[in-house]
Write a structure and sequence with these properties.
The protein has 218 residues and is an alpha/beta fold. The protein is 25% helix and 30% strand. The longest helix is centred in the N-terminal third of the chain and has 13 residues.
């Protein structure tokens, strides 16, 4: 066989397994042991190298590499697209999990709002609990029956004290002195099923709620 080199822009190998999944779901010593097996098999890991910025495919070809596999993943958080998302205390879900897994300090405070109902949202809200949030809310625009997250993940989040606010959609994050202070929520109701087969969330005209928070993660 040929020598294999993995170029990773992150400071540690493993991609989303390392940086996107909390330790309480995937033990990092188990993952690192698997990576060590790959090293013993001859795989070289070069971290902190971004292909296309630090080095190009053409340069790698010139160095003798014959084949290339590009596995960039989905490592970028989606924007909330609501006013106030530039405030201090607003994080993207994937960015938040990456920071936690790298051991970076996160200033989430004591009241954390997590937007969404998928498995990433479950990882985020359960991580917030472990970081010391007294009140952690999951804000989901549909009802509990439409939650896309794994039911076991939802159950465990609820057992850990996460509060679920269904039929609410964020419309604005309000701040004070540049920091998150509260989030404005549009109250929703369920309409007819959409193309996914789930009932479509429809805004209730003129009905809003305000939720005081110190952090918003979407």
């Amino acid at each position: 066989g040929y020598p294999v080199t993995v170029f990773d822009r992150n400071p540690v190998p493993g991609g989303m397994l390392t940086l996107g999944i909390p330790s309480f779901r995937l033990e990092k010593d188990v993952l690192n042991a698997e990576i060590d097996i790959l090293r013993e098999m001859g795989v070289e890991f070069q971290c902190g190298v971004e292909v296309g910025r630090d080095i190009t495919i053409e340069q790698l070809r010139a160095q003798g590499y014959k084949g290339f596999y590009v596995a960039i993943g989905a490592q970028k958080s989606a924007k909330l697209r609501i006013p106030g998302e530039e405030l201090d205390g607003v994080y993207g879900g994937v960015d938040f999990l990456r920071a936690v897994n790298l051991g970076h300090e996160t200033h989430i405070g004591k009241r954390c709002a997590v937007i969404g109902g998928g498995n990433v949202a479950m990882d985020v809200c359960r991580s917030a609990v472990r970081l010391g949030a007294d009140e952690t809310y999951v804000l989901y625009r549909r009802s509990e029956a439409e939650l896309p997250a794994d039911p076991e993940e939802v159950k465990e989040a609820m057992e850990e004290g996460v509060q679920f606010r269904f039929l609410t959609a964020p419309v604005e994050i309000l701040g004070e002195n540049g920091k998150v202070k509260e989030i404005k929520l549009q109250v929703m109701e369920l309409g007819e099923p959409d193309e996914s087969g789930r009932r479509r969330p429809v805004p209730v005209p003129g009905k809003f709620e305000m939720l005081p928070v110190t952090c918003v993660i979407g």
